[in-house]
């Protein structure tokens, strides 16, 4: 049920994340479109599994977050947590049910994405792009299994630090052999991923990426040179995050490193060894009952492994194991552990 918006509501809205980063003009435009809603005790604000393009913010009252019928968390107005959108992941991982009379607002995430991009003075112009795309990078980000696993505060900081750039056909975004500097998410357009196996041989196309796909994270995680070249095959829009921000806000919270003794205990409790070395190295010697999934094939074969098991990942190099663990989380959302000291 809609209710009249007050000056107090406007003051609360100005403090929400990431609304607090908008210019006064943009904030004024947004506030003029927002409708405050009221829910009575027991009423649902949204349901688990919803995929609507809405950020829901609590203004007053208390809300319970439910997994199925079980309450797993609660949010009270006026707290730091209430400055962020409720259960922001898409599809939503929880339902939100009022525990008292509450007021709240819904803000279209696509409109907010556009305003954030403009506030960063990013150029946004797409001409003659035939690829179907939502053009809503915020929603694409929230749908990523990786970003659903980082703390909510980190996710909000990621969204505020993302930089939107327009690109054209033929632009080389990253080049094989160069140092990694950004993580990229494709908002619209299409690009080609190619690798040159040897210096005197022509590049080989490995894949084509479209809106919603991401790239560039491997070099940032392993701290090694780019392993491939990515070139735009259409005009489009990319959103990028600097290496420093990616490491601080995404890599660090997801990194779980175990020494051998603790890793061995995890395996004893039911986890499995996952060896990402090349087959020839695996055949030369490996841990008992370990599975071999070479690093270069992980993206394509990970779906063949059970996603209800924990895996202790190890490789010839720490950086390779760390990258493999990240990719594993990206594909199957399963907990993955990295082991040192092989």
Automatic annotation (TrEMBL):
<dbReference type="InterPro" id="IPR036873">
    <property type="entry name" value="Rhodanese-like_dom_sf"/>
</dbReference>
<dbReference type="Pfam" id="PF00581">
    <property type="entry name" value="Rhodanese"/>
</dbReference>
<feature type="domain" description="Rhodanese">
    <location>
        <begin position="267"/>
        <end position="328"/>
    </location>
</feature>
<feature type="domain" description="Cyclic nucleotide-binding">
    <location>
        <begin position="146"/>
        <end position="250"/>
    </location>
</feature>
<dbReference type="Pfam" id="PF00027">
    <property type="entry name" value="cNMP_binding"/>
</dbReference>
<dbReference type="InterPro" id="IPR000595">
    <property type="entry name" value="cNMP-bd_dom"/>
</dbReference>
<dbReference type="InterPro" id="IPR014710">
    <property type="entry name" value="RmlC-like_jellyroll"/>
</dbReference>
<dbReference type="InterPro" id="IPR018488">
    <property type="entry name" value="cNMP-bd_CS"/>
</dbReference>
<dbReference type="InterPro" id="IPR001763">
    <property type="entry name" value="Rhodanese-like_dom"/>
</dbReference>
<dbReference type="InterPro" id="IPR018490">
    <property type="entry name" value="cNMP-bd_dom_sf"/>
</dbReference>
<feature type="domain" description="Cyclic nucleotide-binding">
    <location>
        <begin position="18"/>
        <end position="116"/>
    </location>
</feature>
<protein>
    <submittedName>
        <fullName>Crp/Fnr family transcriptional regulator</fullName>
    </submittedName>
</protein>
């Amino acid at each position: 049920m809609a209710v009249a918006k007050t000056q107090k509501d406007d003051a609360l809205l100005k403090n929400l994340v990431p609304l607090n980063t908008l210019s006064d003009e943009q904030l004024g435009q947004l506030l003029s479109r927002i409708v405050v809603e009221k829910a009575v005790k027991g009423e649902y604000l949204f349901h688990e599994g919803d995929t609507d393009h809405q950020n829901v913010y609590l203004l007053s009252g208390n809300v319970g977050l439910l997994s199925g019928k079980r309450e797993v968390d609660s949010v009270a107005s006026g707290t730091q947590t209430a400055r962020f959108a409720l259960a922001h992941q898409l599809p939503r991982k929880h339902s939100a049910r009022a525990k008292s009379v509450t007021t709240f607002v819904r803000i279209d995430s696509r409109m907010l994405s556009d305003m954030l991009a403009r506030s960063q003075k990013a150029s946004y112009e797409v001409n003659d792009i035939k690829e179907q795309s939502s053009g809503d990078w915020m929603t694409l980000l929230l749908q990523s299994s990786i970003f659903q696993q980082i703390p909510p505060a980190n996710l909000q900081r990621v969204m505020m630090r993302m930089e939107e750039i327009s690109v054209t056909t033929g632009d080389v975004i990253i080049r094989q052999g160069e140092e990694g500097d950004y993580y990229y998410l494709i908002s619209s357009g299409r690009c080609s991923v190619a690798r040159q196996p040897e210096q005197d041989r022509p590049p080989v196309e490995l894949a084509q990426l479209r809106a919603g796909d991401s790239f560039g994270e491997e070099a940032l995680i392993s701290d090694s040179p780019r392993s491939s070249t990515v070139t735009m095959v259409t005009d489009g829009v990319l959103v990028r995050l600097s290496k420093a921000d990616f490491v601080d806000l995404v890599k660090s919270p997801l990194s779980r490193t175990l020494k051998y003794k603790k890793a061995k205990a995890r395996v004893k409790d039911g986890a499995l060894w996952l060896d990402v070395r090349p087959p020839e190295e695996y055949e030369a010697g490996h841990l008992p009952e370990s599975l071999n999934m070479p690093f270069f094939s992980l993206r394509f074969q990970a779906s063949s492994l059970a996603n209800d098991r924990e895996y202790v990942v190890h490789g010839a190099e720490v950086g390779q194991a760390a990258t493999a663990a990240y990719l594993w989380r990206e594909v199957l959302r399963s907990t993955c552990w990295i082991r040192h000291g092989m």
